[in-house]
Amino acid sequence: MKNGKPLVFRVNLFKKKIRHIFNQRYLIQQLVGREIKGRYAGSAVGIYWSVINPLVMLAVYTYVFSGVLRVRLGDEPGITNFALYLFCGFLAWNAFHETVQRSTTVILDNAPLIKNLSFPSKVLPVSIGLNSIINEIIGLCILVVAVRVILGFFPVYVWFLIPLMLFQLFLGLGLGFIFSTIHVFFRDTAQFVSIFLLIWMFGTPLFYPERMVPAQFRFLVEMNPMAYLVRMFRAVCLKNIFPDAKDIIVFAMISLFFLVIGYLIYTRRFYRFIDQL
Amino acid sequence: MNAIEVNHLSKIFDIYEKPFDRIKEVVAFKKKIFYQRFWALKNISFSIKKGTTVGVMGQNGSGKSTLLKILAGLMLPSEGEVKKNGKTSSLIELGMGFHPEFSGKSNVYLNSALLGVSKEEIDAKFDQIVEFSGIGEFIDRPVKIYSSGMYLRLAFSVAISINPEILLIDEVLAVGDALFSQKCIKKLREFQDHGTTILFVSHDMGAIKNLCDEAILLDKGHLVERGDPGDISDYYTALIQKRYAEETKQFSFIQRIEDEKKGKRHRYGNFDAMISEIKLLNSSGEEIGGVVSGEACIIRVKAIFFEDVENAVVGTLIRDRLGNEVFGTNTGFFHQNTGPVTKEEMIIVNFTLEMNIGSGDYSITAAVHPDERGLNGHFDWIDKAISFRVFPIEPRFIGLSKLSPQISIQRLKTTDIFNLDNPLNIVFPNALDHVEMNEDFQPYLIKGWHEPEIWTEGSVRWTKKEPAFIMKISGRKVKLDVSTSKPDIEKEPIVGDVFCNGMKIGNFILNEHGWKQVDFKIQEKLKGEVARFKFILNRTWRPDDFFRNGDKRELGVSVRRIWCEE
């Protein structure tokens, strides 16, 4: 891994590596299956929990925010129903949160596996990310039905959320790669990541609309890729409009950037950290 | 061609005492070192020819596992390089990635995926894996209910199912029961026959001697010796002795002796006393290089003393070509302790024995110790001091020991013996006085039957050329319904001779289509006994030859039912 290779070569090399991950799809499929089946193994209701959970969340939000607190943030489209507003935002955030949080520890959790089998360990974060995306899609289906029932329209651009989720996966994976690498060397990283994600969550306009953020803190929202994602989710699901082109481009660029950086850090440090496991 | 080439390989681990040291180091920008260097491997070079099996020996912490992990590509070497030619598979830790809640089957698929096997390959090999593991129907139950042996057996079967060109094994042969160990050894031999290169880490000197063509000895990260597995085992033993002596604050030396005739050997001990002569003599005292199996001979060991010692025991050990111990004894076992020996004294011990061992090449190892078990180290131990050959004797025998058997053989006609304990009664206690052709009677149709078929008349089975079955006799007649659908039966009739317990009781001829009932008389005295029946048909036929229907089974006659009558 010497520096100084031409950029084109680097890009090609990177493409090759992405293809390498793609070639591991059978392994990834097995690992995602293990992840999903493993979580509900031995439980009576089994896989249906992943449907019950978001349903209950939506019911609780509706009861608390529309029934008890009667939160009203305004009359413009998208935020008239605060429960749906919250649910839509958290759909995107939770999947991202889970990917980053669990990727951070996945390498260390699977240390015996990595130490004793020569298999491409980078598929571990990928399987975790895919698993969260599956849950996100289940939640999205529930949201679409709820929007149809409560707001009375069908969000026609909902298909566009699938490519968005892919970039959301890239962002989560990129950060996951970085944190998991650091976590191998500094075991305090997981704790740090929890707090970091908590701050990030409150910094993202999930509970409040963007326009309520004071002007002097606006830059925090502008710098926050998750704010872009949440904005696009709400545009598609609650306002029934196609997301802003600027939002799409900025979010995609930031996601790709983190994926590349994370991947490079991970692969270059891989053999260093295997000695530390 | 070399399958594995290792050049100047070193592996360094940096050990930090506290996690915080690592942060301090980052902050200090490597101006100060906060870690300790540990050389797990230091400047190791060797190459392994394709198709050979090489054992790696060494004490705990000698770097064996690190070497294997680097070869498996799990770690990068700190210095030097490793070259491999061929698909590599490693059995380093078993059952990695098994999920306790999942069934054995899911885990086979999951584990294989981790080993880099594609779905198609696993589908093709799945039955083979289950059969090799001997797990049986448990394969569909979650692995958390498996016994630890079953768990490891399944894991081992998955790992071994891939056909690698280079196989790296770390101490995993000790898995499961004796039957499974044998299967493993057999599987390894198969790999060897297919030209797989195997690198095999083990503490089990027996396994190394028996399986490996060569061995490598590692000590504290250095490659100390490479050679014949037997020699390396001896050296390994010597190293352990030396380490032991160091721990108990004694002195011990290891000396390598090499001469053209006998090759490399080892001699170790504290050399307070030394063996000056070892000889194999015949009963008249002449030196010999070979004996006939069972011949009396003498092993003579002379030892001279340089120090005053409290006690001395002289021992000798005969080993076979592979280095397996055949027989060992010493003066201590015979309570012939010398008591104190003074310096400049010499002891001569004659072991007179009959060489009751099998033909082949053997070596004699001799030693002088302070006590009979060698617990306090050795004065002098010489591996393979001399070698000799044992020549075969008539009558020949197989194996290492000559146990001088006496043999007598009697022959009788089974029909002449009365009150014979009929073994069939014990083996088939539940045999019925009729045989149906459905699955329930499978255990009694002992050979020469095809799978049952459902015809309009019920279950029917086709026989092969010599079908046999077990039935309890409850009457004086045995009846059966037979038929055949061979088209040219009129031209070429099928004739079947029927036997009961090996005696012919009659025959039947089939020369037309349709069911035919035939019966045979049975001896009165067999009533109540379980008996073995057999047909021998004069010919079989293949449906495909007549109907071109792809049915290539060798068929004889079809049977519907067999039963007894008064």
Notes on the protein architecture:
- The complex is a heterodimer of chains A (277) and B (566).
- Chain A has helices at 7-23, 25-40, 49-68, 82-109, 111-116, 123-150, 161-185, 189-203, 218-223, 225-237, 245-274.
- Chain A is mainly alpha-helical and 277 residues long.
- Chain A has one domain.
- In chain A, helix 6 (123-150) runs antiparallel to helix 7.
- Chain A is globular, with a radius of gyration of 20 Å.
- In chain B, strand 15 (313-320) and strand 16 form a beta hairpin.
- In chain B, strands 20, 21, 22, 23, 24, 25, 26, 27, 28 and 29 form a 10-stranded antiparallel sheet that branches. In chain B, strands 10, 11, 13, 15, 16, 18 and 19 form a 7-stranded mixed sheet that branches.
- Chain B folds into 3 domains: 2-227, Rossmann fold (3-Layer(aba) Sandwich); 270-391, Coagulation Factor XIII, Chain A, domain 1 (Distorted Sandwich), CATH 2.70.50.60; 425-565, Sandwich (Jelly Rolls).
- Chain B has 566 residues and is of the alpha+beta class.
- Classes of the chains: A mainly alpha (277), B alpha+beta (566).
- At the A-B interface, helix 2 and helix 5 of A face helix 1 and helix 3 of B.
Strand and helix map with partners:
The complex is a heterodimer of chains A (277) and B (566).
Chain A: H1 7-23, H2 25-40, H3 49-68, H4 82-109, H5 111-116, H6 123-150, H7 161-185, H8 189-203, H9 218-223, H10 225-237, H11 245-274
Helix pairs in contact in A: 2-6, 3-4, 3-6, 4-6, 4-7, 4-8, 4-10, 6-7, 7-11, 10-11
Chain B: E1 2-16, H1 19-27, E2 35-49, E3 53-58, H2 64-71, E4 79-84, E5 88-91, H3 104-114, H4 119-133, H5 148-161, E6 166-170, H6 178-193, E7 197-201, H7 205-211, E8 214-219, E9 222-227, H8 229-247, E10 253-259, E11 263-269, E12 273-282, E13 290-292, E14 296-305, E15 313-320, E16 325-330, E17 346-354, E18 360-369, E19 380-391, H9 423-427, E20 434-436, E21 447-449, E22 453-455, E23 458-472, E24 477-483, E25 494-500, E26 503-510, E27 516-521, E28 530-537, H10 543-547, E29 558-565
Parallel strand pairs in B: 3-7, 3-8, 5-6, 6-7, 13-19
Antiparallel strand pairs in B: 1-2, 1-4, 8-9, 10-11, 11-19, 12-14, 14-17, 15-16, 15-18, 18-19, 20-29, 21-23, 22-23, 23-28, 23-29, 24-27, 24-29, 25-26, 25-28
